[in-house]
Amino acid sequence: MQKPYPILLDLSDKKVGVVGGGNVAARKVKGLLAAGADVTVVSPVINDRIDRQKIHWIKDRYAADYFKQMDLIFACTDDFEVNQRVKREAKPFQLVNNTSNKHHSDFYNVAQINTDNFMITVSTNGVSPSAAKQLKAKMLTWLKTQYPDERR
Ligand SMILES: C[C@@]1(CC(=O)O)c2cc3[nH]c(cc4nc(cc5[nH]c(cc(n2)[C@H]1CCC(=O)O)[C@@](C)(CC(=O)O)[C@@H]5CCC(=O)O)C(CC(=O)O)=C4CCC(=O)O)c(CCC(=O)O)c3CC(=O)O
Ligand SMILES: NC(=O)C1=CN([C@@H]2O[C@H](COP(=O)(O)OP(=O)(O)OC[C@H]3O[C@@H](n4cnc5c(N)ncnc54)[C@H](O)[C@@H]3O)[C@@H](O)[C@H]2O)C=CC1
After folding, report:
1. Span 25-47, average pLDDT
2. Which residue in 126, 70, 65 sits closest to 93, CA to CA?
3. N- to C-terminal Cα distance for the chain?
4. Of all protein residues, whose CA lies closest to atom 30 belonging to ligand 1?
5. What angle do CA 90, 96, 61 make, to 5 degrees?
6. In which pathway does it act (predicted)?
7. pTM score, two decimals?
8. Which helix (DSSP H) or strand (DSSP E) does residue 12 occupy?
9. What H or E segment, with its residue span, contains residue 112?
């Protein structure tokens, strides 16, 4: 991604498809549900950290047909080739986050801090997600000193 364009999306009632149901999918699903998205997970198995009451679960392997109606798609399987296929088979208007290949993704997720009044996001543009996580932790410490009454 050469020059990404940062935006905040309103996902309430958007249809979001997640391929795979492991650790990475669980993290993405948590954030998506918090944003009010209508989430469908397609995976033969899903992690206990994914709340089955709050998503639609299609207990199957990836097939493009399941994703025709989706606005956004997250490819989160541990199979690099399947994740590549998800990106390749998406419609031109669908945006895909390929979690195992940053060079084959339409968008990246960011590390975030949400408080009553601020949303602070950190990205390294794909270079080092763990550095983004570390900077977020430092910013949180700093934020507490600057805005002690701010709730998060
Ligand atoms: C490109 C991107 C695409 C995307 O997912 O959107 C991406 C890609 C990849 N991540 C990998 C690994 C890890 N990712 C994390 C954590 C997070 N990753 C997130 C975002 C992004 N990760 C996007 C770029 C963000 C940026 O530019 O900064 C965060 C910020 C937001 C979120 O997704 O929740 C979240 C922290 C949230 C928080 O806690 O605050 C950890 C640490 C952990 O899990 O504790 C590890 C293990 C340690 C390590 O390797 O760093 C691998 C290697 C896989 C492999 O081959 O093993 C790839 C694949 C690749 O690089 O192509
Ligand atoms: N972007 C990010 O933030 C990160 C990305 N990764 C990448 O994410 C990949 C997945 O990692 P984890 O979630 O930890 O793996 P995991 O092993 O916990 O989960 C993999 C999931 O994919 C499902 N799956 C496998 N083949 C499938 C298919 N054909 N169709 C549908 N579902 C299928 C499995 O049932 C399982 O639920 C890793 O291989 C790594 O490349 C890893 C860490 C962070």
Report:
1. 97
2. 70
3. 31
4. 111
5. 65
6. Porphyrin-containing compound metabolism; siroheme biosynthesis; sirohydrochlorin from precorrin-2: step 1/1
7. 0.96
8. none
9. strand 111-114
Helix segments in the chain, DSSP class H: 23-34, 80-89, 129-146
- Which spans in 7-111 are helix H? 23-34, 80-89
pLDDT digits (tens, 9 = 90+) for 76-85: 999 999 999 9
Proximal ligand: closest to the CA of 83: 2
Neighbours of 119 (CB within 10 A): 10
Average pLDDT over residues 52-63: 98
Q: Which of 37, 35, 47, 84 is nearest to 64 (CA)?
A: 84
Q: How far apart are CA 123 and CA 135, in angstroms?
A: 9
As given in the structure block, the two tokens for residue 85 are: 């296929």
Question: Whole-angstrom Cα distance, residue 46 to residue 25?
Answer: 9
ipTM: 0.96
Q: Is 104 in the pocket of ligand 1 (CB under 6 A)?
A: no
Residue 44 near ligand 2, beta carbon < 6 Å: yes
Place of tokens 């994914």: 50
Tell me how far apart the alpha carbons of residues 137 and 130 are, in angstroms, rounded to a whole number: 11
d(CA 146, ligand 2 centre) in Å: 38
* Gap between the Cα atoms of 27 and 25, Å rounded: 5
Contact at 8 Å (CB) between 62 and 85?
A: yes
